[in-house]
Amino acid sequence: MIKTAFNLLSPSGKHGRLTIFIFHRVLPEKDPIFPDEPEAARFDQMMEWVKSWFNVLPLDAAASALKAGSLPSRAAAITFDDGYADNYTVALPILKKHELSATFFIATGFLDGGRMWNDTVIESIRSTPYNEINLGFLQLGTQSVDNPEKKRHTIEKIIGKIKYLPVSERLAITEQLTELSAVTPPTDLMMTSRQVIELHQAGMQIGAHTVSHPILAKQSESEVADEIAGSRDFLVTLLKERIGLFAYPNGRPGTDYLPEQTRLVSSLGFDAAVSTTYGAAKSTSDLFQLPRFTPWDRTKFRFAARLAKNFAQ
Length: 313
What we know:
Elements: H1 2-9, E1 18-23, H2 40-53, E2 55-56, H3 59-68, E3 75-82, H4 85-97, E4 103-106, H5 117-127, E5 132-134, E6 142-144, H6 148-162, H7 167-181, H8 193-201, E7 205-208, H9 221-239, E8 245-247, H10 259-267, E9 272-274, H11 300-310
Parallel strand pairs: 1-3, 2-3, 3-4, 4-7, 8-9
Antiparallel strand pairs: 5-6
Helix pairs in contact: 2-4, 5-6, 5-7
């Protein structure tokens, strides 16, 4: 029944639609602070549904077929952003189990022991020994952090406050936060270069995602070019293979990246790029702003219903 409905919503040929799934992390076990983040068992179930409902293609092949009007019915691609170590340790074995391909967009500056700024915030609040923390320096007052729900609310407040600040200012704030929290954040959250190589050797695609994951809309033209080309060039050297796919950090058009930056991505020789706008791509979609779908429902019916709704975006 579900597959029949998706056949109607996502036919083959020139009227085809491409659903691109986006993930970030796949945790070994459920996270009490972020219970919506998929854990291994849930991801395994989602991949079982995806495998049974869709024709999953590598993203480069899917983008080429979309442009040519030759997509199969129920076409889909699977993507991951940022380069978390659990993509390799947890997600990869599940993808291999279901014989599914995926594309991993890597923020190259965080490989080999680095850490994204938002994870510094998360891990500082997660592991603080205190029951409350004074965030007066962010005009957020004193926040209670004595249970997972309060920790999540505090994390969301901090991230919302500093997300669009300049990179150097954001880094300084996160360093101050680790001191206030009395925490030394982990250095193994992101993949190693070797793990990226092994992902690629396992048949997965690798795409560029900038060096330091900045808000491109806030960067100068030269900074944007350095970020995009720098991540691509690092991966080309690492994998000894051309990199043709790119993902915009955060990915909201007009807020996180600008129209001229999509043209820059094209001029740098990429074949396609993905945003975080909802929807399923069609033949008239901009190949350098392909929409993606974030799945989070835990029941089969709700998961399918949200997918169906995504075709109408």
